[in-house]
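Practice record 12: protein with phenylalanine.
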Amino acid sequence: MDYAQTGREAQARIESAADLDALEALRVEFLGKQGSVSGLLKTLGKMTPEERKEKGPEIHGLRETVSNAIAARKDALEVAALAAQLAEQTIDLSLPAPDAPTGSVHPIAQVMDELAEIFADLGFAVASGPEIEDDWHNFTALNMPESHPARAMHDTFYFPDRDAQDREMLLRTHTSPVQIRTMLDQGAPLRIIAPGRVYRSDSDATHTPMFHQIEGLVIDRDIHLGHLKWTLETLLKAFFERDDIVLRLRPSYFPFTEPSVEVDTGFSFVDGRRVVGGSGDDAGHSWMELLGSGMVNRNVLIAGGLDPDEWQGFAFGVGVDRLAMLKYGMNDLRAFFDGDVRWLSHYGFSALDAPTLSAGVGTPA
Ligand code: PHE
């Protein structure tokens, strides 16, 4: 048998194997258990030593030739298969990516940011206090001792159990307890706002059991109502971004301020929406109640650890939800807290380019 000839023929067939399956069939034909080359290797055992010495190298050479040819063809076929796959499965990097859903900034968060920005311009720091309050900070220290009738004005959520120090606990009904906490912590003078959640057992189109307020507190020497009025006017002009804001200060009553003033602003209806601006006495205008405020009551200063003969101050509390509705034209307060994604994507603000108060609180030109 001419092993070299057999080798060349096998090599030729291997090199023309069309694909990996055809190549595998050839491998079985030559080198499988029943394969022709394997058969030749088995004959070595029955040969005489001389014969084996002569044929052994040739048969092993044949096997080597065949298996090298198979390995080489396999490589070539695999490279070709990969090239074909790459040519077929191209990625078009010029295609636009599908839009990923993005969250939005809730109008209340947006308005809180805007208010904090305005007050920062006026030199106010941001203070905070707990939403789970004790009765003393929420009422007593604010000049509402137990059995004070004003306590009934707040439909308070009380906790069934007292805390470890035997205090009656509740969900704060307003941000005013932060006044007390800040005075006790920082002393005077003070210029702070305290934005946050407050709770009252109340629910209809204009009331939700949880809502948002921003408290303002200024304590210094020689502070008077004029400072309060200027601050509120400056705040509202910057917030609503218009110069024709007219305020009306009405005598009112809060236990923690004396005197107390309720602040109204003029507005008119434009396309069925309330738009703030002008005097409520102007034609087509009315007054709308906006916030409560006043000069800090002496008893509150004392509870805050300050000498009321040395320090005076003003305080105010604004409903943030109300401001958001007015500025951005929303009419149902309850929708604020439904978490409806459609509402949020309609009224929410982009986290990346939310509106900022471009004008800021500048001195008028
Ligand atoms: N705490 C009052 C309220 O919730 C608002 C207020 C704050 C009034 C500060 C006067 C001074 O109604």
